[in-house]
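Entries read chain and fold; for instance:
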Amino acid sequence: MKINLPNQITIGRLVLSVVFFAVLAQFSASERPARLWLLSVCGWIFVIAAISDILDGYLARRYNQITSFGRVIDPFVDKVLVCGAFIFFAGSGFVHEGRNVAHVVPWMAVVILGRELLVTGIRGFTEARGESFAANLYGKAKMLLQSITVGWVLFTLAHPGGWLGLPFFVTGRKILVWASVVVTALSVIPYLSMARGILSETSRSAETT
């Protein structure tokens, strides 16, 4: 199968995600002095990945290169990157003196991961039936908020002594984390409604055959 340019960019973003996690795994908030530059590197890697996400979507629409593979792999890579970031944030690497500096606790990562796994399962089932399952407005808004949150966490923690260390940005970090969890949980509702309709249709089709 020939992989078009938008899908090549998406695959490149998956590779970039591996680099992102490899660098992020080297950071430890309890280490003194903490290597905050690692968070800056991760922040810029994440920005590049986010730009590539916008680019591959634009190219796919602009040149009519939207494929079933792209509809599945693009959100999958996004989920790997975002879920992985939140899992790391909830881990021991971001704990200092018994406090999580990213304001992310394990149950938050579980909620985000659970939502993404559920939607991925629904998407895979739908695409397997030959039907389109592109991201809706709620999913895009959720992804945007999650991306802003990950970037905000990385850059504000990386520069605690600069203007990003001001109370507004520190408080904003906690607010964004909570907002991401709440919006992520709520965004699953339209997908569940869609899945209910698809499953009902499948059941009716089975009964008539």
Q: What stands out?
A: The radius of gyration is 19 Å.
